[in-house]
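Re: [ENG-882] Designed sequences occasionally contain unexpected residues at chain ends

Forwarding the minimal case from QA. Structure tokens:
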């Protein structure tokens, strides 16, 4: 299987688990797999995501993690039917966005198809988002009579600006991939077939850099987001002092097959 043709469905291996993990070299790919409900995030899935991200962060052989969805959908958000029925564990912690933000290693969101509400909060909590040209994004909390609980009210304005965030959250309307790119919600657009290969290319680019510097950059940018310039500058200086300086990089290459 070449990286040129790699799509999430090819990584499932016949599994019916709601979240499937696959490894390509030093990259762990997590694939949301609930096609019957447009990859809505059940309690089981949310628990699995918290566990798998924690395991990947602790595994010295894993350097980058990618989260994506199979069946041409990223995720329709939290499984509201399960939650209404009383089995959704609405207070389970860490929620997916918290688990994503807790990661010390790079976490790339590879979005194909719809990405709605809780799923949007998850992707905004990743290092960055790469999307297919058929992706669509929406915040439907207000349409459902709900209020964000995973950080959207801070993350979305930071990504697109407060006025565009208001437009998305107050109307519940979808925006297409091109609009999401132009607004700064996603970093790049590509085709569905090139989505994972492009994310693997970016992962390999990260792994060509100093691991210590990459991890410090993630830590400092996360801590400095929304902070005053003086606070951010102080965090940068503290991180610079922690960095030991240039050293040989021994991260492995991404495997195209396996």
């Amino acid at each position: 299987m070449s990286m040129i043709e790699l799509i999430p469905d090819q990584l499932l291996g016949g599994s019916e688990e709601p979240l499937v993990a696959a490894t390509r070299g030093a990259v762990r790919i997590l694939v949301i797999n609930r096609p019957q409900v447009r990859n809505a995030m059940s309690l089981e899935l949310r628990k699995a995501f918290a566990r798998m991200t924690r395991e990947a962060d602790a595994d010295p052989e894993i350097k980058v993690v990618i989260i994506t969805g199979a069946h041409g959908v990223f995720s329709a958000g939290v499984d509201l039917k399960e939650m209404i029925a009383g089995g959704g564990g609405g207070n389970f912690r860490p929620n997916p966005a918290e688990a994503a933000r807790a990661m010390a290693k790079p976490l790339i969101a590879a979005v194909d198809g719809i990405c709605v509400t809780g799923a949007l909060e998850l992707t905004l909590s990743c290092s960055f988002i790469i999307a297919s040209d058929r992706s669509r994004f929406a915040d439907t909390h207000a349409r459902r009579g709900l209020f964000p609980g995973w950080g959207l009210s801070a993350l979305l304005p930071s990504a697109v600006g407060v006025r565009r965030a208001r437009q998305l959250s107050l109307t519940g309307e979808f925006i297409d991939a091109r609009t999401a790119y132009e607004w700064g919600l996603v970093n790049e657009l590509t085709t569905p077939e090139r989505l994972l290969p492009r994310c693997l290319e970016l992962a390999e680019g990260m792994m060509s850099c100093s691991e210590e510097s990459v991890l410090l950059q993630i830590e400092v940018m996360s801590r400095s987001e929304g902070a005053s310039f003086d606070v951010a500058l102080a965090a940068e200086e503290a991180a610079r002092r922690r960095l030991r300086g240039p050293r040989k990089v021994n991260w492995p290459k991404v495997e195209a097959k396996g």
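QA comment: On inspection the terminal residues look reasonable. The chain has ten helices and nine strands. Proposing we downgrade this to a documentation issue.
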